[in-house]
Amino acid sequence: MKVEKATSNDNEILTEITKKSKAYWGYSEEQILQWIDNLTISKEYIENNPVFKLVNDNTIIGYYSYLIKDEKNIKLDNLFLLPEYIGKGFGKYLINDFINRMRIEKFEKIILDSEPNAEEFYLKIGFKKIGQFETSIKNRFMPIMEMIL
């Protein structure tokens, strides 16, 4: 298992991973289609942002990407796994790679907007909830989380 920089040619598999991972939480196909723009990872996105893929037995099974806010702060934009790998330690492996990379790059704070169903995962890793906002689905709130490095 290894984490490596994604290339623009990975865009279709990363988009599929994103959609399948989101659907894992029980969202309808109709809801996934409403979010399609947010769930699509374009070649341009990969070219313009740091994107790292998790490869297991020569298969891409997950990825993360982030946005650099300034010299001290970054935002975890995406972290997704294929559903069959959720709950088996691969997410922890991926987030730890991300956190270690951010420490090496001397960032001081990570922020993220968590999928509500993934909030517990981020809390266990050491993130703290600092707020929330309502989504397009009534009474569904996205936790805003941060980690000081």
Features:
alpha+beta; Aminopeptidase; 35% helix
Helix % is: 25-40%
Number of helices: 6
Distance between the termini: 25 Å
Radius of gyration over C-alpha positions, nearest whole angstrom: 15 Å
Beta-strand residue fraction: 25-35%
CATH architecture: 3-Layer(aba) Sandwich
Identify low-pLDDT runs.
none
**Count of distinct structural domains:** 1
Structural class: alpha+beta
Descriptive report:
The longest helix has 15 residues, at 90-104. The protein has a seven-stranded mixed beta sheet. By secondary structure, it is an alpha+beta fold. It starts with a strand and ends with a strand. The model has no long low-confidence stretch (mean pLDDT 94). The chain has six helices and seven strands; from the N terminus they run E-H-H-H-H-E-E-E-H-E-H-E-E. The protein has helices at residues 11-24, 29-34, 36-39, 43-48, 90-104, 119-125; strands at residues 2-5, 51-56, 59-68, 73-81, 109-113, 128-134, 141-148.
Topology diagram in text:
Elements: E1 2-5, H1 11-24, H2 29-34, H3 36-39, H4 43-48, E2 51-56, E3 59-68, E4 73-81, H5 90-104, E5 109-113, H6 119-125, E6 128-134, E7 141-148
Précis, in short:
The chain is α+β, with helices and mostly antiparallel strands and 149 residues long. The protein is built from six helices and seven strands; from the N terminus they run βααααβββαβαββ. It has a single domain (2-148), classed as Gcn5-related N-acetyltransferase (GNAT) (Aminopeptidase, 3-Layer(aba) Sandwich), CATH 3.40.630.30.
